[in-house]
Amino acid sequence: MLSSLRTMWHIFKHLFQKAETVQYPEQMPYLAPRYRGRIVLTRDPDGEERCVACNLCAAACPVDCIALQKDTRDDGTWYPEFFRINFSRCIMCGMCEEACPTYAIQLTPDFEMCEYDRQNMVYEKEHLLIDGVGKYPDYNFYRVSGLQTATKDKGEAINEELPIDTKSLMP
Amino acid sequence: MPTIIVDGKSYEVGSGKNLLEACLDAGLDLPYFCWHPSMGSIGSCRQCALVQYRDNDDQHGRIIMGCMTPATDGARVSLKVEKAKEFREAVVESLMLNHPHDCPVCSEGGECHLQDMTVMVGHRDRRYKGKKNTHRNQYLGPLINHEMNRCITCYRCERFYRDYAGGKDLSAQASRDRIYFGRHQDGILESEFSGNLVEVCPTGVFTDKPFLADYSRKWDLQSSPSICSGCGVGCNISPGERYGRLKRIHNRYNHEINGYFICDRGRFGAGYVNGDKRTNYVGIKEPNGAFKAIKKNEISRHIIQWLGNGNIVGIGSPRASVESNYLLQKLVGPSKFSLGVSQTEHNILKRQVSILQTTRASNPSVREIEMADAILVLGEDLTNTAARIALAIRQATKNKAIAMATKMGIEEWHDSAVRNLAQKELSPLFITTTAATKLDDVAMKTITLSPDEIANFGLELARQLADGNSQDPQIIEIATYLTTAERPLIVSGPSLLNANIVESAAAVADALAMSNQNTQLSFTFPESNSTGSILLGEPQNLMLSDIIENIDEIDVLVVLENDLSRRLSAFEMTQLNASQTKIISIDVLENKTLEISDMVLPAASFAETQGTLVNNEGRAQRFYSVFSPLHDRLPSWQWVIDIAAVIENEELSAIASFDEVIDLCAQNNNFQALSSVAPDKNFRDHGLKIPRQTHRNSGRTAITANTSVHEPQQSPDEETPLTYSMEGLNRDQPSALTPFVWSPGWNSNQSLQKFQAETDGPLKGGPSGIKLIKSSGCGVSLDYDRTPSVSLKNNYWRLVPIYSLHGSEELSLHTKEISELAGLPFIMLSGRDADNMKVSDGDGVIVSGDDLRISISVRVSARMAKGCAGYSAGYNEIGHLTADTYVQINRDDEWQPLKPVVIATDRIASFKSEDNQYV
Description:
The complex is a heterodimer.
Chain A: H1 2-14, E1 39-41, H2 56-60, E2 66-72, E3 78-86, H3 95-99, E4 105-107, E5 122-123, H4 125-128, H5 141-144, E6 160-163
Antiparallel strand pairs in A: 1-4, 2-3, 3-5
Chain B: E1 3-6, E2 9-12, H1 19-25, E3 49-53, E4 62-65, E5 76-78, H2 82-95, H3 113-121, E6 132-134, E7 144-146, H4 156-164, E8 171-173, E9 180-182, H5 196-200, E10 206-208, H6 209-213, E11 222-223, E12 226-227, E13 236-242, E14 245-251, H7 264-268, E15 282-285, E16 291-294, H8 299-306, E17 312-315, H9 322-332, E18 337-338, H10 343-358, H11 366-370, E19 374-378, H12 382-385, H13 387-396, H14 399-408, H15 415-422, E20 429-433, E21 445-448, H16 451-467, H17 473-484, E22 488-492, H18 499-515, E23 520-523, H19 530-536, H20 544-549, E24 556-560, H21 570-578, E25 582-587, H22 592-595, E26 599-602, E27 611-614, E28 619-623, H23 636-646, H24 650-653, H25 658-665, E29 690-691, E30 722-723, E31 770-771, E32 797-802, H26 816-822, E33 826-830, H27 831-837, E34 844-849, E35 852-861, E36 868-872, E37 886-891, H28 907-911
Parallel strand pairs in B: 1-5, 17-18, 17-24, 19-20, 19-22, 20-21, 22-23, 24-25, 25-26, 29-30, 32-36, 33-35
Antiparallel strand pairs in B: 1-2, 3-4, 3-5, 7-10, 8-9, 11-13, 12-13, 13-14, 15-16, 15-26, 27-28, 28-31, 32-37, 33-36, 34-35, 34-37
């Protein structure tokens, strides 16, 4: 009896409190930069695609909604020939972003992706690729990697010695 | 059996093992790099460190290398003690000092032994602040990619390439931290086994270049247990598929056959499966000669029209499975069926099988070949006709070294000690061929003879072994070596198309076997199912020439996976084309027979269907589809059943599953054991099917989302115990059903040891394959037809076939990398003949004979029988040259040396072409 009355009193009190309902979409919520929403593929500071098609995001994805195929550019760098995310399956867990060794794949504070047709939730590379660096302005994987490219010879990466002369007789 | 104590727990281990092997056998995870189960230990990487204790009271112990310490009875060691763990972590940390930040763009990533070991020892953070060493890469040809920065100097590549496979052009160079593994300059790797570097290298220095061009991670590959269709040896392979494309082929361990290694034809020769020469849809020839694609169900309408008197003749194929051949023979009847090989080849192969069924000698597996201690090769260039056997023979020549070491009390795995002791001592190997072979460097004696002379030589040797009255010192010497050996081995085969050679090999083996039970006799067979097709042949079978002679009486000719232009003369092909007979071709690739066919049925390749192949030893092995056939392709046995339905053959058209096909084949006496070659479709492993995909196969809900967001069901596999999905168990099943190897913590192919009963031993799932040929042991009755040796004519050369690993096999030649390596068709001359004609490698000659005049390039052989000239057998443009014909050869003064098309240069190399020097 007493408990019931107490409960009624608590509910009654709520009549005089400010409503929590947010008038979305007229009223937009604040989403932190690290919010996990729509996935994008970013570019490095030089404007090249960051993704090297290493497949780690696809392997990390718990719902298997990422598929891609590696190809090689004429300059020797790897890139995804196609890169597809099925957002109708994506659970925005961010594991792909954590797995990405090149900061290419990033989650953004945008969740407004509703579609009437599920097929429109399938994003290809052209839909995913943005023209910016996202959250990591400076990183360029190929400046660190030992892989030789057309613009970076062996020994020109960060923290690398010049290539060894195997024919040297110096001690 | 010694017992060792590891961290206080006792384990019984095999005798003659080292501590590393003993720990791995006990199921313990001890990291290693340089040790390889079939190459032994050299102790160069220092990774397998353990602490060994003197006795129970010793609390301190000392650090030892597991791979260099014998597992003696009562040995006390610890893996877990902090001192050992710290040591192992420090080793990986130092290896990582110069290891580049490459994993995301390295094709070893995900199946990298270095990654596995780094995780296993727990190394994570880089403490060293200095710079990383870098190296220039080399162009090593179209098959192998080189990325020297990633090297951890374990020496496995050099030890495999030089010590194991006998290559000369890859070695360790320079000293200390400048050490480099490569060639003396950029160039194509010469060894026929170079592809094994991909699997031997524990990291990404040597990687599979064709795979790199269309790359997928190991965890994304859908694999299946398969059998190589490159030659008659029947190596086990594990092909991987993704997105409907065959991506790569890895070795699949079979203790009796290929062990850890396969040849480059097997590894790289299946690119044709994705090629644009594949047949995709049923084609019907229009009156204008072009093919029109029709639907599968429309074939009956056409075939019924063609039936006429109902005289259907079938031509089988030595590269089609037992089941397909058997069904076709059943459909048309044995008296209207041809095995689809030339009469000469048929007679020799049939004789080889009958010899194997009666010989007193045993018929060895590749593993048993490796144990031989005196070997005679009669007329075979094994490296090019049965490469894996050549590699085994190279190992067999080291048996003397092992015998010497055993006498000195040195364990077999103590590789550098064994080599050091033996120096250049090798077990005797005698090679009798018409031209130089790649095994010449380990041969005690090479004898260069024409095909007839080889046969006579063998026969005389057999006589010497039987009654010992030869005068020839060479024959006496070889006979002495063979009789004093414990396990002598005779190897021969059909490649010179001379039946007498095979006869003489049998005579030698039988003569030896009279006094030595351990005598072995091995024959090579040219194609993946040559043995199987001979076994299912019936005496009433037609020869190809019979079919051509009576072609006008035939209404419909069904050709099963056979390019007849490789077996018939140009004239016979014209006859076939001109006849009114309707030709139905079932094949995988476009070829000249398809061009003259009236209907083309697209066949599934080895990667898209299952079947049984019988190897040179008579071992029947099942291969399974890696992915379901694309487009309108069907397995060729299914096409035969469809044709049976059209012509209302009730027995065959009632067949509903592959297992029923097998049951039908098992009615044949030779194939009674066929159904026990591998489990039937109802087999379940712990109640589950066996997955073709790894448990981490990615992208399931996105791969086909571009066409429809609604994911299709995984394609069902009703025919086999395997499934096209990741569900199920890949452990504890029979070995014939192991699609790939993986074990927790062991992502690389080194996880194989978790599937083996012991390191370098048989698999836990038991042996796979069943031997269909058993010898009665009553001895071979010789059928030697001594042909009078034809007197040599001046300025005439007798043509003998010369085989190339890359180029002589029909299907692999349609792989672009293989066709680049095959190069142009050639005539092979002895050095003296070439000098007389003033030609050298790459020059041109005009070959002329009856109705024949072609211009062709020259290769010079280190040795060549007098009066003989070789021609590149099996090459596409060489159809007019036939064995045992006499031709004139003259220098072609107008020869324009053609440059073979190079299809796979290193992309970077083009940017650096002028700067090929080391800085």
